[in-house]
Amino acid sequence: MGTLATLVSLLLLWAQAPCWSHSSEWTYSGGELDEEHWPRGYPECGGNRQSPIDLQRRKVRFNSALRALDLEGYGDDEAGQFPVTNNGHTVQISLPSSMRMTGPDGTVYRAVQMHYHWGGESFEVSGSEHTIDGMRRAMEIHVVHYNAKYESYEVAKDAPGGLAVLAAFVEAENAENTYYSSFISNLASIKHAGQSTVLHGLSVLNMLPQDLFHYYSYEGSLTTPPCTQNVRWFVLADSVKISNVQVWKMENTLLTHQNRTLQNGYRSTQPLHSRVVEANFRYFPSSVILSFIPYVLGSELRSYLHRIENNIQYLVESLEEVKRQV
Ligand SMILES: *[C@@H]1O[C@H](CO)[C@@H](O)[C@H](O)[C@H]1NC(C)=O
């Protein structure tokens, strides 16, 4: 009887066993576990607190209590060695736990890794995961951290409030960003999925946008399987600029496990449901002021007024920051 029960439960286990062999076989498109079918293998991907999302600026709630993030050890570039891997989905840079981020509520997070999401599959150079008012930027950086109250990333990755991601957009311009040169030229040496190299003297700070103060924040998930819903997101409002050629190299150098060019590695935006996105800055639609100026006044005057408007907005934000610190 005991043996029969064991046999039956073994059979049941076998029947429930997933039909893929290891977790790296999920994809964004193509195959059994494409994005649409992630919830089949990873139920949390079908949850109601998923990332990425569309950041709709009109609906974002201003919260003056969202203090600046405190980034520690992000610029320690001299002595560092950074393992870099093509994991078949993206290029991932391992980060030392001496890199830390303190959130607005005082929670301390330790850095684990950073990686990129990009597009490149069609003529459109767009591959960010979050969108702003529906617009997808060229690329997106994710610096993944775990809550320092847990002893390791392994523990924190499944624990409540376990993770925080500092995200930033990358935009394409004509000028080369020299802080990216060595990183991008090294991609050729990790062309195949599973290959690794070591980068020396990387400054994560320099690879991020200038303005680290203004950000959006909300509760979400990992944007890849298992889509764990324990991520506090900080999405910077400013973006990094790299050249069109640098974006092109990011989009056309690495290969997936199937030896296909690693492109369009981003997840589509997920429903917000009952969540509210907050920001530590106010949004002024530029049309509010400019709409009062008739077009007949000419483009020079309009652009002049636009500059004044931007300066006023900057002053208002600076005053709010001063108020907060007093
Ligand atoms: C990908 O290409 C490499 C090098 O040419 C080869 O060793 C490997 O078997 C290929 N993998 C697949 C899945 O075709």
UniProtKB/TrEMBL annotation:
<feature type="domain" description="Alpha-carbonic anhydrase">
    <location>
        <begin position="24"/>
        <end position="281"/>
    </location>
</feature>
<keyword id="KW-0732">Signal</keyword>
<keyword id="KW-1015">Disulfide bond</keyword>
<dbReference type="Pfam" id="PF00194">
    <property type="entry name" value="Carb_anhydrase"/>
</dbReference>
<keyword id="KW-0862">Zinc</keyword>
<dbReference type="GO" id="GO:0008270">
    <property type="term" value="F:zinc ion binding"/>
</dbReference>
<keyword id="KW-0964">Secreted</keyword>
<keyword id="KW-0456">Lyase</keyword>
<keyword id="KW-0479">Metal-binding</keyword>
<feature type="signal peptide">
    <location>
        <begin position="1"/>
        <end position="21"/>
    </location>
</feature>
<dbReference type="GO" id="GO:0004089">
    <property type="term" value="F:carbonate dehydratase activity"/>
</dbReference>
<comment type="function">
    <text>Reversible hydration of carbon dioxide. Its role in saliva is unknown.</text>
</comment>
<protein>
    <recommendedName>
        <fullName>Carbonic anhydrase 6</fullName>
        <ecNumber>4.2.1.1</ecNumber>
    </recommendedName>
</protein>
<keyword id="KW-0325">Glycoprotein</keyword>
<dbReference type="InterPro" id="IPR023561">
    <property type="entry name" value="Carbonic_anhydrase_a-class"/>
</dbReference>
<dbReference type="InterPro" id="IPR001148">
    <property type="entry name" value="CA_dom"/>
</dbReference>
<dbReference type="InterPro" id="IPR036398">
    <property type="entry name" value="CA_dom_sf"/>
</dbReference>
<comment type="similarity">
    <text>Belongs to the alpha-carbonic anhydrase family.</text>
</comment>
<dbReference type="GO" id="GO:0005615">
    <property type="term" value="C:extracellular space"/>
</dbReference>
